[in-house]
Design goal:
Length: 265
């Protein structure tokens, strides 16, 4: 999937170079392993509907939403990135809205924040609306008292901020294993790939896409009571997705391999 130009310059993404090794992004597949703190909640169904393109409907549960905090480690197929933890680790916060396309259950991500440039650019390639932010969450510990022990009852927190303004805070007090993973983490995400026009008169393509994902793995999922605050720190659109009610919270490990995109049609 490496771009090859007539000039001889190469690269899956900019910057191009003679060998292609200067590109910010390596070609897929990309492997991800992470720890997730997630809260299910409800938003105003009318507010959620305004974030859906006309091809998508609200599905059987209008207003279904989730707030997801995750710490990720990733690598490309050769795995070279793992030798540089600063390049292979990032944190992420995103909001998911339940939706459907011709009866197929999906999730739409209207907002996402990451703290590293590579996942930001990779998200834009996918059509995922990633922005820069500061994301932190409680880490499961193997020993000691400075945090909850992994696969055991305890309280986990997640915070997200951008530009010095806190935009979200969640807490999840897990008490027992769940029977199954949370619903909005088991359905494909649907994105809009948007390329803004730069040349006068051009009409860049805009379309809905999902991803081809393999190697999906869940650790044991622990669930319990949760709280979630979405702060009025940005604009009215973002504030419209604050909770009407808050459901269960979940803590789990998750892995997948992102292979490519595919048109939703």
């Amino acid at each position: 999937m490496t771009t090859s130009l007539v000039s001889g310059l190469r690269g899956y993404s900019l910057p191009l170079s003679p060998s292609g090794t200067s590109a910010t992004l390596t070609p897929p597949p990309w492997h991800f392993s992470g720890e997730v703190v997630m809260v299910d909640y409800q938003v105003d169904p009318e507010a959620a509907a305004r974030f859906l393109p006309p091809e998508l409907g609200p599905g059987a549960e209008p207003g279904q939403a989730a707030a997801v905090f995750a710490n990720w480690q990733w690598c490309s197929e050769p795995g070279a990135e793992l030798a540089d933890p600063g390049a292979s680790q990032f944190s992420e916060f995103l909001i998911l809205l339940g939706c459907e396309y011709r009866g197929r259950r999906l999730a739409r991500c209207p907002y996402a924040w990451v703290d590293q440039p590579v996942p930001l650019l990779r998200g834009w390639v996918q059509g995922m609306p990633k922005q820069f932010g500061e994301v932190h969450q409680t880490r499961p510990m193997r020993v000691g008292r400075a945090g909850p022990l992994g696969s055991a009852a305890g309280t986990y927190h997640g915070t997200a901020a951008t530009g010095g303004r806190r935009i979200a805070h969640a807490s999840v007090s897990v008490t027992a294993p769940a029977a199954e993973p949370p619903a909005l983490h088991t359905v494909p995400l649907v994105h809009s790939r948007v390329q803004p026009p730069w040349i006068d008169g051009e009409q860049p393509p805009v379309g809905l896409v999902t991803s081809t994902v393999t190697g999906v793995e869940f650790s044991e999922v622990w669930s319990g009571d949760a709280t979630l605050e979405i702060f009025d720190a940005l604009d009215a659109d973002f504030a419209s997705l604050r909770p009407v009610s808050v459901g269960r919270g979940h803590v789990f490990g998750y892995a997948e391999t992102l292979v490519s995109g595919q048109s939703l049609a």
